[in-house]
Amino acid sequence: MFKLNPKLSQKLAYCLLFCSMLLTIFPVLIIIFIIVKNGASAITWEFLTAMPKDGMRSGGILLAILGTLSIVLCAISITLPIGVCAAIYLNEYAKDNLLTRIIKLSIVNLAGVPSVVYGLFGLGIFVMYFKLGVSIIAGALTLSIMELPVIITTARNALNSVPHSFREASLSLGVSRWQTIRHIVLPNALPGILTGAILSIARISGETAPILFTAAAFYVPHFPHSIFDQVMALPYHLYIIATQIPNMPKNIIFGTALVLLMIILSMSFTAIFLRIYFRKRRKW
Fold it and tell me: In whole angstroms, what is the distance from residue 109 CA to residue 131 CA?
C-alpha cells in the first residue's frame, strides 16, 4: 500500500489549509476594494456631519449615523446584562436536566432564526401589541432578542474558560458560590464577555430587516428627542438610496456603504485588540 512521506503529507495539508484561507479572504478583500474605490471620493467632513438634502442626493448622513448608534447602544444595554445573567445561571447554577437541555437547545435554535423573522416578531409584539410604535426602543428590543443567543453563548464560553480550580480554591476557603462568581469567575471571564459584546454590536450595526419594521424611517428632519422617536439608520438608508431613489450618484451610495463598513470593522478590530490586551495580562 502506497504511503506518503510524513513531511510531504504535512506540506500538502499546509498548502490545502492555506488555499482555503485565501479562498475565504479573497472575496472579502475584493468587496472592500470595490467599496473603497467607488466611495472614498464621497467621504468628506460635510458628508459625515451634514443633514441630507435634495431628496438625499446631496448633504450628509449624520442623522443615519446617530440613529444607528442610538439603536445599537440601546440594544446592547438591554441584551448584555440579561445575557450574562442567563449565562451565569446556565454555567454555574443549573443542573443537567431536561429543562436546562431544552433551554440550551432553544438558544441554539434562536441563533439560527433569520433576521427578517425577528423583524416581523418585533413589529407584531413591540410596535403593535405594546404600542411602542416604530421607534428606537422597539428596534432596540427586537435587536436585543436577536442577539441574546449570541451573548449567552459567548458569555458561557468565557465563563467555561476560567479554570475550575479557581472555583474550588475559593469555595474551600468558605466563600459562598455567588461571591466566588462575583469576585473570581466574572473578573477573569470579563475579557471574553466584552469581546463577544463588541462583536455582537458589530453584527447588529449592519442589520436591515429588524429595524425596517420597527425603528427606521425613510427620512427624519431632526435629531431624536427620546427613545420613542423614529430614526434614520445607515443600513436602511443605504437600501433606500441604492434601490428607491433614481439618479443617485454612485459615489454617495458606496460612500454610505464605506462608512457602515468602517464602523463595523472598527468594532471588530477593537474586540481583537481587547482580546490580545487582556490575554497578555492573564497570569494563568
Answer: 28
